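Review box. Two proteins, two foldings.
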Amino acid sequence: MTDRPLKVLIAKPGLDGHDRGAKVLARGLRDEGFEVVYTGLRQTPEMVATAALQEDVDVVGLSILSGAHMTLVPKICRLLGEAGLDDILVTVGGIIPDDDVPALKAAGVAAVFGPGTTIAEVADFVRANARHRG
């Protein structure tokens, strides 16, 4: 067992320019004891997968408010798998219609967090489901 905290990548894929929630989550997860890397705004799926590989993260948290989740998220999950990172826990937060959740989960998403989700709920889910890689 490692003493290293779980490492989480928070990413804002696509053209969505609203990052307050992602920044609040990143800060909150740091306060909960996680190591957090925030990629910033307007990341391509390739940039997210590359950052996950380079940073050797255990979790990728995607924040999407733009409505492009059905395009971006499956592509990110596919790229993670192609890079041999299919053991990374992928979560999505933002404005995601309930009807889209099953398809996102089928693409490889472990959980979808909507508006009103607390930092503690996210932290508890990550602790219960993420594993240290390597």
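Next protein.
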Amino acid sequence: MRQGIDSKALYQLLRQRHPVDGHWPADTPFEMILGAFLVQNTTWTNTEKSLARLREATAFDPKKIAQLDKETLIRLIYSSGFHQNKSQLIHAFFTWLVKYDSDVMVIKQAFGSMKALREHLLSFRGIGPETADVLLLYAFDEPVFIADRYAQKLYQTLDAPSAGGYDELKQFVEATTTLTVPEWQQFHIQILDYGKAYLKGKPPYQEPLSKDYYLLS
């Protein structure tokens, strides 16, 4: 097992071999948050349909979103599936946002630390560790690693320690890697895009990165 895996070298290699746009496809933090909720257990194509309806109905204004009645909200997001649970999460989360004037900086200052904010995000029904970290990274601009299933598969191919579980891999990468927020964002999208191309199904994977990485090691 390779105890000394260098995630920054992996990030740089992905940038060279598999360059992609590291931005979340959204114009505002509120569109990004909605996308993160709606894409759970569905495709991005279905998510885009829901976002288009929400944009038309609310212009992604947090107050307007929080004021939507349940039936209207369900109708707007129906294409994303799991609409009962997702509508409840959207209503609860945006009601909470409005209490802070929908200002992510005010929220960050109120909670004082990323750990405290993450714990509160996890208190919402429907927000798990991965979604919480997605929100921290893309909506709150906090430097976190998203140890999703593609990240776990990629690190497993490199024989990384603690690559088998979300929390273990997240802690390992964050403890051994220093990246800026834009770089963490880029890293996540790179791994996601690479995983879709090469890490589907079960191992062994027909992926080209491992050999390239070992040449750098």
